[in-house]
Amino acid sequence: MDLSNLNFLAILVATLSTFVVGWLWYGPLFGKAWMSAVGVTEEDLEKGNMTKIFGLSFIFEFIMAFNLAMFLTGSPEAAEQMSAGTGAFYGFLTGFGWIFFALAVNSLYEDKSWKYIFINGGYWTVSFTVMGLIIGAWI
C-alpha cells in the first residue's frame, strides 16, 4: 500500500471538520429535533462520558477520513486528477450513497423515525462532502 500520495495534515483537518459540522448540526441547526427523535434531554446528554465519546469519535472519524483519502488520492493517477470540487463530489456520493442509506436501513429495522434518519444521514452526507472537499483541495 502506497501512502505517499496522502496528505496527513488534510486528513487531520478533515477529521476535525466533522466536529465542527457536528457542533452546528446537532447544536443550533437540528439539536432540539435530534433530541426529540432520539428521545433524550440535555440532562441525559450531560451524563455521558464526554472524554470517551469525543476520544473514540476522533479515532473513528480519523479512520473514515483516512479511508476517504485512500479512495480519492491513493494512486498517483487519482491524485493527479483530484481537486476540491472532485473531492467534495465523491465525498457527497460516499456520505449520501453509502452512509445515509446504510443508516436508513438500520433505522428501519430499529423502528426509528424518518426525522431521525434524515438528521443523522444528513449529518454524514454533509460531513463526508466537507471531508472530501478538504482532502481534494490539499492534494
Q: Can you offer a commentary on this structure?
A:
The protein is mostly helical and 139 residues long. It is built from seven helices and no strands. The protein is globular. The relative contact order is 0.20.
Count of the separate structural domains: 1
The separation of the N and C termini measures 18 Å
Low-confidence residue ranges: none
Look at the helices and sheets and give the structural class: mainly alpha
The arrangement of helices and strands along the chain is: HHHHHHH
Q: Helix amount, in percent?
A: over 70%
Protein name: DUF1761 domain-containing protein
Keywords: Membrane, Transmembrane, Transmembrane helix
Transmembrane segments: 6-26, 53-75, 87-109, 116-138
InterPro entries: DUF1761
Write out key terms for the chains shown:
139 residues; mainly alpha; 7 helices
SSE layout and pairings?
Blueprint: H1 8-29, H2 31-38, H3 42-46, H4 50-73, H5 76-81, H6 84-109, H7 114-137
Helix pairs in contact: 1-4, 1-7, 2-7, 4-7, 6-7
InterPro entries: DUF1761
Pfam family, one: DUF1761
Keywords: Membrane, Transmembrane, Transmembrane helix
Short synopsis of the structure:
The chain is mainly α and 139 residues long.
